[in-house]
Amino acid sequence: MKTKDRILEVALTLYNAEGIRTVTTRHIAAQLGISAGNLHYHFKHTEDIIQALFEGLIEEFDRLLSLLRMGTILDLDGFEKYLRQSFHIHRKYSFLFLHFVEIGNWIPAIRDRYFQLTQEREVQFLMLFQHLSAIGVFRVLPSTGAQKDLVRLLFIVSDFWLAHNALTERHDGEEAFQQYKRAVESLFKPYMA
Fold first, then answer.
1. Among residues 17, 67, 85, 146, which is most buried (max CB within 10 A)?
2. What spatial distance separates the first Cα and last Cα of the chain, rounded to whole Å?
3. Alpha helices in 93-143, H assignment, sequence order
4. If we measure between CA atoms, which residue out of 107, 135, 129 comes closest to residue 47?
5. Do the beta carbons of residue 14 and residue 28 sit within 8 Å?
6. Angle of CA points 159, 183, 148, to nearest 5°
7. Nearest to 48 by CA among 136, 107, 125, 89
8. Quick one: 138 and 59 in the same domain?
9. CA dist., res. 58 & res. 56, Å (int)
10. Does one domain contain both 56 and 90?
């Protein structure tokens, strides 16, 4: 594995375990057994590491959404499989979701990229909703406005569920997934065929 990839892997583990404000590039370098200078050759600042991890998150969701566009959701089992994979990605990058607002304020490039991404994802989800309606998983949605509202609620629930859970019920493991699934399904339930 390349040094750059190892840095990202260790940084992700440390940020998830200890948070973004307590982990420095020196901590990451020490964990890897490399010099801080070697780490800074690959990533000049902490912000660069976090931005690279954010891009990794986007790439993983892009792959998941490409499966959706290929029609992998044909029934409720396929929908649950998608939710489980989505939840896995959220958990893998949990530090981003637990500190999303703080990170967005700290690193404006991430805030701007997130805004751009939500616009792109809205188009992708609207197309997906049309597909799900066409194959009978969804009933015909009442209007484009209602579909856009559903996408917005989906972002709110999925992107901030981990933070809500950490502050309130603190579910873990399979129970956490079941609660996440329940929250997302409640958004879709009125539209399911």
1. 85
2. 46
3. 94-98, 100-106, 108-134
4. 107
5. yes
6. 60
7. 107
8. yes
9. 5
10. yes
> Taking all residues of the chain, what is their mean pLDDT, rounded to a whole number?
91
**Residue 169 to residue 165: CA distance in whole angstroms:** 5
The answer to whether residues 15 and 99 belong to one domain is no
Q: Are residues 74 and 16 in the same domain?
A: no
Reported as a single tens digit per residue, the pLDDT across 46-103 is 999 999 999 999 999 999 888 776 666 666 677 788 899 999 999 999 999 999 999 9
88: tokens are 């896995």
- CATH classification of the domain holding 35: 1.10.10.60
| 88 and 160 assigned to the same domain | yes
Number of domains in the chain: 2
Give per-residue pLDDT as tens, 6-23: 999 999 999 999 999 999
Q: What range defines the domain where residue 9 resides?
A: 1-44
Same domain membership, residue 184 and residue 117: yes
Q: Which value, to the nearest 10 degrees, does the dihedral of the CA atoms of residues 187, 118, 97, 4 take?
A: 140
Phi/psi at 124 (nearest 5 deg)?
Answer: -65, -45
The residue to which tokens 């967005």 are assigned: 104
